[in-house]
Design goal:
The protein has about 180 residues and is an all-alpha fold. The protein folds into two domains: about 55 residues, Arc Repressor Mutant, subunit A, CATH 1.10.10.60; about 130 residues, Tetracycline Repressor, domain 2. Helices cover about 75% and strands about 0% of the residues. The chain has ten helices and no strands.
Length: about 180
């Protein structure tokens, strides 16, 4: 039993070394230019160890994105209101800002945003218009507007998180409420 825990710890340590090394390389080059050989040299890990966990660099980045998405979605699950859900998402991005900075600095940001909004679509639609009469058609338009909040998130990341998560949440909620109040 103890062996499994140690093994899991070693796996986590190995993956963290690979992730950190990938992010170091991404500071100076695009994902498409990163090779497994240079990644493994920086991480001080054998290539066979890399391939034990990932099929290639692109697959590794997809795995990182999937893990980030799972974290965001799990944190949003406990939210009772739209504002709490928005704050949970923004706070998670802030807590893992280095990872999100790299995801959003590449063309992969579109994949991540689509995955998030697809996963949260029904929850968001259920939250829209609570206490305000909104038709299903209007909800769909509002949802499309909400997808634009991904642009606010992207701007916040590009500005290197100068505002607090509370300030960004307040901005998003203010914009969304202005749309709802205009109906």
């Amino acid at each position: 039993m103890n062996h499994i825990v140690n093994n899991d710890r070693r796996v986590r340590k190995t993956k963290k070394a690979l992730h950190d090394s990938l992010f170091t390389l991404l500071e100076n080059k695009p994902l498409s230019a990163v090779t497994v050989t240079e990644l493994c040299e920086i991480a001080d890990i054998n290539r066979s160890t890399f391939y034990k966990y990932y099929p290639d660099i692109e697959g590794m980045m997809e795995h990182i994105e999937d893990d980030l998405l799972k974290m965001v979605l799990q944190n949003c699950e406990v939210s009772a209101s739209f504002e709490e859900m928005m704050y949970a998402m923004i706070e998670t991005v802030f807590e893992h800002r280095d990872s999100f900075r790299h995801v959003y600095s590449s063309s992969r940001k579109f994949r991540f945003k689509d995955m998030f909004f697809t996963a949260k679509r029904q929850d968001v639609l259920n939250q829209i218009g609570r206490g305000v009469p909104v038709s299903d058609v209007e909800k769909e338009y509002i949802f499309s507007f909400l997808r634009a909040t991904g642009g606010i998130l992207e701007q916040w990341i590009n500005r290197d998180f100068q505002e607090t998560p509370e300030e960004i949440t307040a901005l998003c909620v203010r914009l969304i409420n202005s749309v709802l109040n205009g109906l």
